[in-house]
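Supplementary Methods, section 5.1.

A reviewer requested that the exact input to the structure prediction be made available. We therefore reproduce it here, unchanged from the version used in the analyses.
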Amino acid sequence: MKILIQKFGGTSVSTEERRAFVVEKIKRAREDGYSPVVVVSAMGRKGQPYATDTLLSLVSQDFKDASPLAADLLMSCGEIISTVIMCDDLKKNGIAAVPLTGGQAGIVTDNKYNNATIVKVNPDRILNLINEDKVPVIAGFQGISESGYVTTLGRGGSDTTAALLGVALHADEIQIYTDVDGIMTADPRIVEDASLIEEISYNEVFQLADEGAKVIHPRAVEIAMKANIPLVIKNTMSECSGTVISSFRKQNPDNVIIGITDMSDRVQVTMESSENNGNNSYYYVLDEIANNKISIDLINIFPKEKVFTIDKKDLNSFKNLMDKLEIRYSLIEECTKISVVGSRIRGVPGVMSKIIRALENVGITVLQTADSHTTIWCLVQSSEAEKAIVALHKDFNLGN
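The structure derived from this sequence is encoded token-by-token as follows.
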């Protein structure tokens, strides 16, 4: 039995015209000898009637905060509506299909509402439907708790659903359909000649997704990677071959970089030991920040200073904590972290210097850097971020 997971995002199922493309993808999978298992997101985006954010706007924030169980039940409705409508479209095209909630599909979670953790996946009902030559159409983003309540899986939950089912069903491939042709070398809204990445490794795409690229959620990549199941990012509305994500990709000897992404709303923090003499809190300040659930990034610790970044949304909490600890510090707000990703960075001399030179050549000051085996990070002022991305993309010859 050759099983193929096909996940379709909210834009793919938002209109009858777009769902016609979805039906064609499913029909073709069956013609190619696969048994497709379909995962769908809620129809459309905020403002459209059945989008998750639209449904959540029907109740007050106080109620959602006081009753996350009820909020999860409401949030699950958009995907359930999509399953039924998708089954109707398939039936009109001569394909027998059965809609399933996440719980009916065998996804069991803990009781952490709004961001549940998977406990187990029982694929028996799905397998029974496949054996009956029916297409299971499953609501993404949700499961059922061990105590029997509907739960949701957090941001990127439908991608996570597809990956979980792919592993449980030993699928040949997991296809993630969206409204773009695949993963690009940079955001095409910023870089006009951004090109399609035809092949990419799990580790590389995990870095891109974790650092701001929004084509697929990192958790789905991690799940597929552990089972070594290929992921393919494709466009519902085109015949583009998309981006294949697997454990191995062909290396381009001419370039060590595969893509560039960015994360805005960063704030750089600098603490100097000379300004905090006699304050013991200075030596334990990172522990205090962690205890207050403030995430830090790009951490550089030197004998005379500490430099790191925080998210802009945490700035007020950070300031209140520093006032309490009587820590002196300075800030640079409105920063963007640019991530240059490629599995061949490791062991290749001169990559960092080439990045710095490319940015200096267009007059951009680099505020901070860090690196790993697959990624080099540069912090710049947000007003210069787009110019920085274009310059790096050009210097590393990533364009079409």
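The chain has a mean pLDDT of 92. These observations are discussed further in the main text.
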